[in-house]
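User: For a benchmark we're assembling, each entry needs the component sequences followed by a predicted structure for the full assembly. Here are entry 17's components. Please fill in the structure.
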Amino acid sequence: MNLLMIIRVAFRALQRNKMRAALTMLGIIIGVSAVVAMVSIGQGAQAAVAAQIDSIGTNLLFVSAGAQNVGGVRSGTGDTGTNTLTVEDLDAIKREVPSVSMLTPTVNSRGQLVAGNMNWNTSIQGVSEQYPEVRKWRVQSGEFFTESDVRTAGRVLVIGQTIADNLFAGGDPIGQTVRVQNLPFRVIGVMVRKGQDQQGRDQDDIAFTPYTTVQKKILGSPRLQIAYVSAVSPDATYTAQQQITELLRQRHKLNANDPDDFTVRNMSDVAQAANETNSTMTMLLACIAGVSLLVGGIGIMNIMLVSVTERTREIGIRMAIGARSSAVKSQFLIESIVLSLMGGSIGILLGVGVSLAIPRMLGWPTLISTMAIVGSVIFSVAVGVFFGYYPARKAAALDPIDALRYE
Amino acid sequence: MQAIQEITKPDLSPLHLVQGPETRPVIQLEHIHKTYTMGDVQVHALRGVSLTIREGEFVAIMGASGSGKSTTMNILGCLDRPTKGSYILDGQDVSEMTKDERADIRSHKIGFVFQGFNLLSRTSAVENVELPMLYAGVSGSQRHARAIASLAAVGLAGREQNHPNQLSGGQQQRVAVARALVNNPALILADEPTGNLDSRTAVEVMEIFQRLNRERGITLILVTHEPDIAQYAKRVIVFKDGKIRKDYQVEDQRNAAEELKNLPVIEDDEEEDE
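Assistant: Structure for entry 17:
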């Protein structure tokens, strides 16, 4: 009695009770498809975050004024109330830290933009001429301002697509004049459309002007919130982080025991944190789905136990006409494996289908994971073996005389 | 089939009383004891049974319930082991065999026919007949051909694809006989094969047994409690209290084929419907 024969016997036995086999499989189908779909959703989210971080640039560092704790007073980073990051600090970084290639400060303000009879309230960000390169965000038409604009605090404006749409519906904004706090600014460029960020905020509702202009002509204050710094390469970010920290501590005349009055973070940390959050979410989803897989396995055991009792006479017949105990055991074990494996296969198809449908129906990104599929197959076979073993052993242990007499 | 070669031995007429000395023994039981322990009580089902059954014999085992005939049947069928004594089946000592070895012996040397037919439900006749060959390791194409031939031998050609619930009791029992035959066993054991059948169908089944015994020389053991069914056999062994009480050759053996000719055919339409 070879394995192929036993598999055929098992298949025939299952065919004799199709409805029951289908319902038993349903538990595994739902379990496996849930695992596949959940892992796809989790991995999709992870991939989306990774892609976003990658687009920002992994060699990016953030230097911000203030720190979590200064002399016992907690202040948020980039707080406008702190004055611990100056243009001079940034100039020093640019001059003295070799692993830094570019940087741009940012000075945030809001203001009403007026063009002709149209107006629009938006965020006006003061940055340096290196902003497009540091943030990897290009100009679509016109050009970004230059170093001399920064030096002279020129009244030039580069606007996002949302502003272009709202102030100059249809027309070419380049060369037009926009008034900010009654000061005329010349529009010299329009940024490439970026769309919404992960929180759903419109990233194109923004206008850029030299940081000197914001400091001197809009806010009248030299404060900086945050500086974006590019390291020469992604590998150099940690070196840059260390060197910037040392330099700023020196410049701020901090003693060895004093905490930093500024914060330097790099993108890898942010990426790692985001990844960890997402992995935890994925694991959680997969575990919840795994529970339903377990319940499906118990369903198989339940049905197999009922089946052994119900088919006691059949087992007796098989043994009387020459089936060894091992053949009976194999038959029931394989029936259980066939149930779980078939359920697993259908579950994978369903799970992949759901994973493909979710981006269309809910707009969430999904990434179908080969690992999850392979894992589900292995797991469903394991479920079949584990939950089929006990009923199979019970069947094999029957005495043919008693089994034949069983009513 | 190999049985055909065995027909070349002297033709024994149905009324022949003495077995030819040249036939070899198929079953040799010597001082068989079987004791069951039920709680604190020991039940002696068999108390020293010795018995020889030769090739080509047709033996009926009779006895009241509790006489030990079912226990003897289980031991003869290698479903159970004797507590004491030796059992040689077809030249092999099977009394000390393990569970798996006995399964193999059942597969190759013994064919079973039960009172309740014991066919697999929702399984066609031909698949039921193929089942013993599956466990004996017969190849696929051979299995099918032999199952078809075996069904034809019991007069069920054309019914191969019917499921048990589409067959009458007599037909189901004939499928069971075909299943018992299909591995060319040394011995067919029939346990109350006519118990669930009406009298005419019972005679039909006995006719098949007599024919298989006569034409193919198949050794048959029939367990029954009906004396008139026992009269179709050539030899009757009567059990009582775990021992053989009587063992005699049947003097006026009934001929099922002859009787069938004289029996009126009643409600034959049962076989025609579907």
